[in-house]
Amino acid sequence: MPVHRPRQAQRINQLFILVSITTVFALYFLFFRQPPVRTHGMSGSQQPHKQGAQSSQQPDAGKLATASRELVVASVKADDTAWIREQLADWKANIYIADADATSNSGLSVPVNKGREAMVYLTYIIDRYDQLPDFMIFMHGRRYQWHNDDPIYDGASVIRKLQLQAVVKTGYAPLRCTWIPGCPVELHPLKPVDEGPIVRQQTELAFATVFRTIFPGTEVPAEVGATCSSQFAATREQVMLRPKADYERIRKWLVETDLPDDISGRIMEYMWHMIMQKKPVYCPPAGECYCFTFGLCELKCTAAKCEKQYVLPTYAAVPDGWPAKGGGENGWPKPDWNQ
């Protein structure tokens, strides 16, 4: 004799399936088909803003192979940047020396050394706005640094793994997937709290005022979150969603601000994803990010991190001689820790 389920149990199962499907679609649209920050009225140009670029078509492999690509490197005189041309020879390198004498011939320079890497990035975009390449990577000058989302913090490895198809689809791709620090929420601009490092607190206190200057006429978000640390890839189309006047206004603020360099730079760190037309909280799940952006699709992950990919070190300064030396000491992992 067949057993008949009660109607209530059937309805519960149907409801569970519906909720599961809805959740999957919600996550997809939240992280990979996001509308941009609304910035009506912020442009110095009369040209209306375009919507955030994200192609649904599969990028053509042949076109990607021949696409123009450039590195925008923020460095100082003390940085050894020789590795960039040695390890990343298929990218044209624009190496800015932020603390160089403006009259020297030592390389590309900036109007004033303020705001850390932000001044370099803005200067490149402004100077090259009408001749931007197809792809750009905005990055720091040192090869090994804790910012790099790699088991041994190797910037060359991060860039070699970058999937240009992903950059085409989203227009903007952070070079970091692990959530700590920065995600899911780093700043509460409307309700600052006395928590965390003092630099975070000072950034949060100043953020709303700066936001109104950078995005005039736009509502200040209640929460801001994004993976640190001001290293990302972008397409020409995504950069040009904003008129040149927007970037000029942002740089003008950076030149004129009285905020300390570490605060102005950190404010910009949590502005870039919105400048590139992403939502105030832009924190894709780590596993999806590693797979989509870097082609690492067989990882065991939580929303915030994946196994054997990244360890947040105790100290910011990479040991001398790293990775050959210093592993397993002072909070730095052994170079083969993920094997």
TrEMBL record:
It comes from the Eukaryota. Residues 40-61 are annotated as: Disordered. Keywords: Membrane, Transmembrane, Transmembrane helix. InterPro entries: DUF3431. Residues 42-59 have a biased composition (Polar residues). The chain crosses the membrane at residues 12-32. This is DUF3431 domain-containing protein.
